[in-house]
Amino acid sequence: MDEERDRGRIAGFLEEERRMTRRLDGLAPAGRAALAASVAHRLLPHFRVFHERTGCGDPLVLHGALDGVWDLLEHGTAFDIVTVGTACLDQAFVAVDFGHRLTGTSVGETWRVANGAATPLVENAVHAAWAVASACHVAVHSGVLETRHCLRYGRDAALASALHRRSATTHPAPDAHTDPLVERETRRQLRDLELLEHSGPTTHVLTTLRQPVQPDRSQP
């Protein structure tokens, strides 16, 4: 029964991925950029808290890069994707390097730092920097795959936060599909996607996507 249930869940996951890809492919390029930017916008506070706690990194670099995406969407102001993208990835490497030193992992194990080896504080700082870099990439190149990556970073950050909250209790580890924090992020992503499908990246929609986000300061 377990094997059959697992096969069913895998099939459902793959179908969900295909369905999401079709919907993203149907969005206008500016709509995909706005969707990616909305996820990055929600993740930025994680990097700000990481900087406040550790003194590492520069959240203003990521804020400036994401402002460039919003300016492109609202005013058509172009930016240099190579310069901006590299600066964002440099901030990710700062967080990863801190994670290496914190956990004793090697440089070749970056994926472990971003996926459970380090604390949520570090993991979500990496996710935030990657999300901003992806949003910049989508704004210039309109890629569906990079948009999907951005959506995944949002859910991964929610899952990391959920794991931290559960670790201090007797509750079992959260399920990636049913934990309330992951569900909340997924609902926001779907709401934003539906808004962009219906109205496009109008000034009103972009203002809605950029609503202020309060940082979670409870993570170690």
Automatic annotation (TrEMBL):
Lineage of the species this protein comes from: Bacteria, Bacillati, Actinomycetota, Actinomycetes, Kitasatosporales
Span of the signal peptide: none
Top-level taxon: Bacteria
Residue spans of biased composition, Polar residues class: 200-220
UniProt protein name: DUF416 family protein
InterPro entries named in the record: DUF416 (IPR007338), YP001051499.1-like_dom_sf (IPR023381)
UniProt-annotated stretches for the region Disordered: 197-220
